[in-house]
Amino acid sequence: MSHTVIRILVASKNPVKVTAAHQAFSQVFPNHTIHCEGVNVDSGVADQPMTESETRLGAQTRVRNCIDMDTDTKEDYFVAMEGGVDQFEEGAATFAYVCISGRDKTIHTGRSANLPLPNSVYQRLVCGDELGQVMDDVFKMENIKQKGGAIGVLTNNLATRESTYTQALILAMAPILHPDLYV
Q: Which residues form a coiled coil (predicted)?
């Protein structure tokens, strides 16, 4: 039995993001072989986006840059994820925006749930630190952002950066799965 191969270009070489894209597409297209490749592309925003709008723009810029890299049109989908933080009425939180595009270059944008951040962590971000660095310091770990992320350590690994990205990507694919309903 042959499987159709779906080729995905992920706008990051971070293994958490590449694996999340692979997981999401494997769940959505279980009868296909999924091939994910990560590439480094510029987000056009700060390393640590500090607002929802900046985070969304970073994901959209990354996916557009990914599309532009596909000069031989071999990819079926382009995926980008951008983590950010913002101050909300309930307090500071981290979240991610995700973008998916097919060959038609239509960008489908989604967003993850919020993870509340301790004020002490948020204050360091305001001073210019990146969330991964701060969490490494607070939890005496190394390279948290390529593991479970702040989400993992703050939820005792009940949720992870990868699981959050995977869920957000699956939700963002609704228009791809049902294009007749999203006209």
A: none
Element (H, E) at 26: helix 15-28
Residue 141 CB-density burial (10 A; 0-12 exposed, 13-18 middle, 19+ buried): middle
Quick: pLDDT tens for 32-91: 999 999 999 999 999 999 999 999 999 999 999 999 998 888 999 999 999 999 999 999
Q: Does 42 show up as a binding residue in the annotation? A: yes
Tokens 């072989």: give the residue. 33
Q: What is the pTM of this model?
A: 0.92
* CB neighbourhood size of 11 (10 A): 30
Tokens of 57: 């723009």
Domains of the chain: 4-114+159-181 (3.90.950.10)
Q: Among all chains, which residue has been given the structure tokens 């500090």? A: 50
CB 108 within 8 A of CB 175: yes
Q: What is the pLDDT of residues 1-40, one digit of tens each?
A: 457 999 999 999 999 999 999 999 999 999 999 999 999 9
Please say whether the beta carbons of 83 and 132 come within 8 A: no
Rg (CA), the chain: 16
Residue type, position 78, single letter? F
